[in-house]
Design brief:
Helix content: 40-55%
Oligomer: single chain
Largest sheet: 5 strands, mixed
Strand order of the largest sheet: 6-5-4-7-8
CATH topology of the largest domain: Endonuclease, Chain A
CATH superfamily of the largest domain: Endonuclease Chain A
Length: about 280
């Protein structure tokens, strides 16, 4: 990494800690030069002289800079590890205070309108938000929970499901893949194929995931365009499997499945057969 790009990254991270652009510049200049006057800092950091005093006062208030008495005043940085740790702790504490002062008021405002929006359908795009919503719906179940999910999702879901089970909530679970029996639920079925992720709590709220996997190459998520000669097909109604195997120009045999395929090499969006 070049010195210039490294300086830009340091500036960005200092901004994230609440420093203004001028404060970040002054801090880095002072850090490199150990002890400086305000005039020296102003010139080297390219900060207007009338502004530099306010900038240095703010850095002093943040605990990052110490100033000597006398004329001219001299400035130096405090030991960064300790000073930045104290600054970060103050920021976290301030965020907590703001959260505590806001949450009750905002919850009251949200609750007053929540019932009006209850029947709406909302779309979530990122996997992290989908997971969060699934976990929220699971936690809200009071009587019964119906859930279908992929086996690799169980690590995140299992703690919530076990907690529901201990509360006496009836749980029906379907997993797609090869998971072991989940004995903490009332009913568990395993489907060795693909499926749709669905979560329904008390028949009142549902999460329906339309496309969990990335197309087209199942293992890498890369898009693919394949041409080749059909070799054979596999069709199993009981397990819900439909596959076609093709031999490509380089003599490789590739398995192709349909929407949300994960057992095959490729998830197909469109298949054209030319006689």
């Amino acid at each position: 990494m070049s010195r210039e790009s490294n300086a830009e990254e340091l500036m960005l991270k200092l901004r994230n800690l609440g420093l203004t652009p001028y404060e970040a510049k002054a801090y880095l200049v002072l850090l490199r030069n150990k002890v400086m006057t305000s005039t020296q800092i102003s010139k080297e950091a390219h900060i207007p002289q009338p502004r530099v005093y306010d900038v240095l006062k703010s850095l002093e208030d943040k605990g990052l800079v110490i100033v000597s008495e006398g004329r001219p005043k001299l400035y130096r940085v405090e030991e960064p590890r300790k000073a930045l740790k104290k600054l970060a702790d103050r920021i976290v504490e301030k965020v907590k205070e703001d959260y505590l002062s806001l949450v009750d008021v905002l919850e009251e405002m949200y609750a007053s309108k929540a019932e009006e929006a209850r029947e709406e359908i909302w779309k979530l795009n990122s996997p992290s938000r989908i997971y969060d919503k699934i976990l929220d719906v699971i936690s809200e179940a009071q009587v019964e929970l119906l859930i279908s999910a992929y086996d690799h999702m169980l690590d995140k879901l299992k703690p919530r499901l076990k907690k529901l089970s201990r509360k006496g909530v009836s749980i029906c679970l379907i997993t797609y893949g090869y998971s072991e029996p989940q004995k903490y639920v009332d009913e568990h079925r395993v489907k060795k194929t693909i499926g749709t992720v669905i979560v329904i709590a008390d028949r009142s709220e549902m999460v329906f995931v339309t496309d969990w996997h990335d197309p087209l190459r199942v293992k890498t998520g890369e898009k693919a365009f394949l041409e080749g000669e059909p070799v054979r097909t596999v069709y199993n109604v009981a397990e819900g499997i439909a596959q076609i195997f093709i031999r490509t120009a380089d003599s490789k045999e590739v398995s192709v499945g349909g929407w949300q395929a994960y057992l095959e090499d490729v998830e197909a969006e469109y298949v054209e057969v030319i006689s």
